[in-house]
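Record 1 of the preview.
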Amino acid sequence: MKIYINGQEADITLDTERNLGDVLKSFEMECERNNATTINIVVNGQELLANEFDTIILKSIEEIETLELTTITENDVLASLQDIGERFCQIVDDLKMISVQFQNGHDKQAFATVTKLADNVDYFCKATALSSLFPERFVNMDVEGVKVQDFFADFSSVLAEFEEAFKNSDSIMLGDLAEYEITPRIESIVAMINTLS
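->
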């Protein structure tokens, strides 16, 4: 059996492992020692789905040609969050100009800012979802004293209003939302990220 970890073939010797479950258990123990966890498993070219797990882990190692594992570490998640913090700092400056850009006919620049905001909010949501894999390390991920999930439940309604104003080319509403609703929330997210060193 060939084992690949994050796309690289691993030099692993199997000793007492008889089936896939044994291999995964040994691997997960090693991950725990390195503050990492497995986020994706591919067996013989097929991604392992949750509802198949109990059956396929009984498969003997002789039946497995390839095992591909994707892992992530606490430090990977932290690095992603810090990267997002830097991106959000740039977006704040762009958001302050969005109303003026629309009023001056610079729609292309304004569209780019909105796209950048949407992409990075999505990126942040994915990173916070991954942070939940390391609850001890990321236990204090609160934005202004509110859990990230609850903060985003409130923020999503503001983003929906922003999207509506964008569709309607309402530059005044866009400017108000960007300056008074979105920018302060983005700055609060950045402040929270800066506490995660």
